[in-house]
Write a structure and sequence with these properties.
This protein is mainly β. A six-stranded antiparallel β-sheet has the order 1-2-6-5-4-3, with no helix packed on it. The longest helix has 6 residues. The N and C termini lie far apart (about 35 Å).
Amino acid sequence: MVEHGKPKQHHLSMQNRKLLDLTGVSNVESFDSEEFLLQTELGHLTIRGHNLHIKNLSLEEGLLSIEGTVSSLQYLDPGSQNKNSKGLFGKLFR
């Protein structure tokens, strides 16, 4: 259910490409050591890097901390297909 009247908030803070703190995270759709796919208050976010892992997660509060080496952050427009994304079937059949 969508809450009306509550402004959407999403913040991102990165320290030395090694620690990423996010707010406004509503779901972690998939993750592995090289890629995270998140649903945030402002759309899907793909995080790519190396040795990525969850340091802290609280979906009730919308908080996520990721450690590892971050190489890219990409927001996906609603309805668009990301050609570089592995996708569910791509990950299953690699």
